Amino acid sequence: MTFITKPKLHHPQLAANSLGYTRRDYEGSVSTLCAGCGHDSISAAIIQACYELELPPHRIAKLSGIGCSSKTPDYFLGNSHGFNTVHGRMPSVLTGANLANRDLIYLGVSGDGDSASIGFGQFAHSVRRGVNMTYIVENNGVYGLTKGQFSATSDKGSKSKRGVVNTDAGIDLVSVALQLGATFVARSFSGDKAQLVPLIKAALAHRGSAFIDCLSPCVQFNNHAGSTKSFDYVREHNEAVNRMDVVPPRAPIHIDYAPGATLAVTQHDGSVLQLHKLSEHYDPTDRIAAMGFLAERQAAGEIVTGLLFVDPEAEDLHEAISTVEAPLNTLGTRDLVPGGAALAKINESLR
Amino acid sequence: MPKPLAHVNDFVVKFANVNGSGSASANALFAQSVIRMGVPVAARNIFPSNIQGLPTWYEVRITEANRLGRRGGVDMMVAMNPQTWDRDVAEIEPGGYLFYDSTKPLPPSKFRDDISVIGVPLTQMCNAAYTVPRERQLFKNIIYVGALAALLDIEIAVIEELLAEQFAGRDRLIKANYEALHMGRDYVQANLKPVGLKVRRADAVGDRIYVEGNEAAALGAVYGGATVCAWYPITPSTSLAEAFTSHCETLRKDPETGKARYAIIQAEDEIASIGMVVGAGWNGARAFTCTSGPGVSLMQEFIGLSYFAEIPAVIFDVQRGGPSTGMPTRTQQSDILSAAYASHGDTKHVLLLPEDPGECFEMGAQAFDLSDRLQTTVFVMLDLDIGMNEWLTKPFAWDDSRQLDRGKVMTHEDLETGRDFGRYLDVDGDGIPFRTYPGVHPTRGGYFTRGTSRNPYARYSEEGAVYVDNMQRLLRKFETAKSLVPAPITRPSKRATRDAVIYYGSTTPALHEALDKLEADKLNLDAMRVRAFPFCDEVFEFIAAHDRVFVVEQNRDAQLRGMLINEGGVDPAKVIPVLHFDGTPITARFIAESIGMHMGAAMARVTEAAE
Fold it and tell me: Is A126 exposed, middle or buried (0-12, 13-18, 19+ CB in 10 A)?
């Protein structure tokens, strides 16, 4: 894991955002993943997205489970608190953390083993509770850290590096997230930074459970012919339904595209998602249509990417349970302890 | 036929019912009416894991002498369940009383000739008075309460007062209940002779309250500043989460906005429950879950994370009969060992061992200070007997000057001073490091939390020496815990003795009664009630000061005894287990007989049997 810290030196001309942070301030330790790993591209996209959104790095809490993907929070946002929890249980820890302090931004990073196998239940329940979070699954269809076993997202019929054919049906996390009521659902590809960075930005700006399934080929164990999660396979079968720009609330909105092909979606925090539609029939605000479209394209062997569904008016768990505005971890004795007089009344009712 | 029993304010009435028949509230009414007459009561529900149709019992000990444990034996059986008739009748003490529904004649073989039989035609009376089936069933219970009141001299006005409070604002219901109550009373007065068991007005209750341990513990969590509760329903802990919810609704809403200063999540399972608790604890909120043995089994991995990554968490374990699904509605103290050393690897956890609802409240609040101070999991070990039965207990008290102790937390201001921050650095020798809350400072105090080995500055390390240092520091921290947890309480014998007894939790009142019985037989023991794990040094000093120490507990494997041997190097031959684990609360008779037998003395009953 993190043996190596990066030197603090950086190029003097590195541009700072309005908070005075350079891109370097959003980085973490040196990655110890394999050279060429898709996960490192996702870390880079997270760094870029946070820098561009001008988020104060320490106000982001990054949580993960166990596995190659779950190691990555060490490689970005070095000044943020991070929590490498237990296998498959990041969603519950993130939920608890979110309950304790609603003011931080929660980024959950997980893998296909962590979220589709051991943690499938927690993934499902955190999504259906509407926890305000960005949940990224770095999906390579394989157990990398234990050297190449199939994961639950491996497609039926795909071949392992050793030539074994997977006979179990694959779980499509995007379809599951849609069915469970996630209010932001996207899929992308670690090799497509132009698509991925705006998706992460939009997810971070979204209030509610935002889920991104990011295909991320494993260069060691799942990048061969016969794999459906290899760089070549994903590039050949990728069908993007839209491209997106995210305009933060404080920036002026420019329309660069022909209006007919662009859909502007204003999120709760005021940010505008400008979706440049690539597929004419695709409406990302219609959950049922999205589910149908996904199933149809999947049957045709295509991997649909882009922003697949968004509910810009979504409510989160804190609204559902009506908690106070102040983070619960800031409340003190006076706010929390009802005192002796209240207790005397309770005693009276128990006699 | 032996002489019919004659006792005033000192006898046991047991109700045998079918569950789901509405008997529970009538039986509770009976117990409360005795308390209102100033006579203490110890009542215990013995119920099945079922909603309707299975046998259920309610045992009420009327005890002016304040014997709040189970005595053992039944002086009057209210036999309302044909399914369990034979064993219920068999349980009555010689000279005791059988109260039954005499509507349907029963053959003489169904009775005993050494008891007094009291028949009231309850069904016949109900059928004559009511036409709706549900009314017939519910009012039958109130009719027998009225009949018992007349037999035992319980004041009808007291029961009426309780009914009026219970159904306040629903006059029609109050009137109907009064009618049923009077129907039972009038039948007895017109047709039956008085019995030898009597309730007489006294002043022995004082200012005590009558409350379940689960409710008390939940209230303790409110006063202890808990803001996050994540739980999964499991008997016998469910009512703890429900009580926390209802107390929060009245005590913890923002007075201006009406919004909640708490978050309660019914999780998808126990693993998610403890995961949320750990997440909230990591992020600086006080959080707890409540569960029972099977839940603790599921939580093992997270408990180890809390221990090793040093994250505060509170678990209320309301123990039931194990292993596996075991006896889910019966009581035991059988999770002590698995809680103390929960999770893989070398771990130890703080346990608090309340004796009654009063201590459930105190320890329920204290657990949160301890877990923040020690940055680890703290268990509060209730059991079904304390948790789900109402006990007479001293009133809850709170010192308004008390502040929540958040432990060693470095704030933004602390970090600004440039003070060195190492998340796992022991700066002052107590084994407890400082922590920071996430998001506290833009450039200082951030760290990566993990369940893997790391150095004092929270950086990943697989070096043996670094790992060993950290594990030794955790032991130092556990040593520090000894000075923070509730100390044991000693109850010295009136005469110097080399014999002693150690006990804990719900065993307490039965044990105290047993000690008095033993003393009457000139068997003297010093007694110590252990209230927490880690054991304070006093516990081992106490053992060292005696030749023979009985350890009384409600499990098969003498779990606390094993922990005493393990932690204190106690000679196993010196500590003698006294074990009661049939799922019913331990009785004074059982303890006195077991210890008495061991001490080579003939107990009164044993002598009698021999004669």
Answer: buried
